[in-house]
Amino acid sequence: MFILAPALALSQESHRHFGISKQGGVKAIIWSDTLHLVILNITLVILLVKGTIDVGGVDVVWNDNYNSGRIELFNFDPDPTIRHSFWTVFVGGTIYWTAICAVNQTAIQRFLALPNMREVYKTVWLTSIGKIVIYTILFYVGMLIYSSYKKCDPLASKMVQTTDQLLPLYVMDETESWPGFPGTVVASIFSSSIGDVATMLNGMTAVTVEDVVQGYFGKKLTPVQAGTISKIICFAYGLVSLGLVFIIAQFGTLLESNYSWTGMIAGVGLGIYTLGVFFPWANTKGVVGGIISSFAFLIWIVWGSTVAEQHGYQSAIKKPISVEGCLCNATLEVVHGPTE
Hints:
Layout: H1 4-14, H2 26-55, H3 58-67, H4 86-103, H5 105-112, H6 117-148, H7 166-175, H8 181-216, H9 223-248, H10 254-278, H11 284-310
Helix pairs in contact: 1-7, 1-8, 2-6, 2-8, 3-6, 4-10, 7-8, 8-9, 10-11
């Protein structure tokens, strides 16, 4: 996911195809992530300020999205098949972010790098506040993109091939006359993605060396040997990640793929930890059986849904779009539809 996203952004802006991978130490990742976060937020804030002024103000952005049914603040429909309702967002979001922030290997690895639990608590609070701020900015950018293209949908008019390319297109349209700014946006996306990739590769490598090589196989390694094996394993994981990019690209948009597959893995991981906390007498066979059955069931749901959508057996309900303001002819695929 984190390799494909910046590659799509750069592909949209430069009309070329790219992929990237990286590894690094935990301290370097933390410091670089901090810098990446600052740069990304600054570029996004500049973008949304300029975009808001261009469309006529915050009230115009809000009204455009509200009138088209894109803002649903009080949807309490208990139907679990609805993508965005209070229950799917609150319940599903709580489970998802608990798994990501509490039992995820990359989070635990960073917590262990802190001197004491007080610093861990502070980190969790700061992370939560930061995520709220970042997601609020991203939500508003999405609303701004719709408001800017409400009369000429880029996807329906074939200006882009996938919704993942909407943000790069918007950046180019809004700031093409600003020397260096589009490149700064792409650089910030790449740098943030590289940090995530490096964190995950380091996390998986640490688990493999510690729990598999030295734990399961009982190998006693010197620091030099452990370092060499870690580099080899990290390189291998990097190659696998690059290979998976071509597979993930076939499964709909990045947002859908990310939440589907990441949620599947995170949910199983949270289930294992929860089982250990509340049922300490659970044994290895029961845990392994639960993992296998859970993964089998979830893969059946995710894979089946993806295949069904690709073959036209089902499709996501789309909000109203228009191409009446386009300067060239376009084939409109979806003009209107029921709101979720």
